[in-house]
Design goal:
Elements: H1 4-28, H2 43-61
């Protein structure tokens, strides 16, 4: 039986990777006039990295194991 937490980890990791990639793209190509109040903190980079790490932790911790 596969744990639901394994699939939640996959979802967190994929969403984190997408958010992190978008944040890194904005670091390389900053917008002309950012309308976000605290743009200089780059929250999407931090939250994307955090989601990716937590998702990978969940994937490894709750991964289905082969049983012989």
């Amino acid at each position: 039986m596969i744990s639901i937490w394994f699939f939640i980890g996959i979802s967190l990791a994929v969403n984190g990777a997408l958010i992190l990639a978008a944040g890194l793209y904005q670091l390389v190509n900053p917008p002309v006039g950012p309308s976000v109040v605290l743009y200089q903190l780059h929250a999407n980079v931090w939250w994307g990295a955090a989601l990716l790490v937590f998702g990978l932790i969940y994937c490894f911790k709750f991964a289905p194991r082969r049983q012989s």
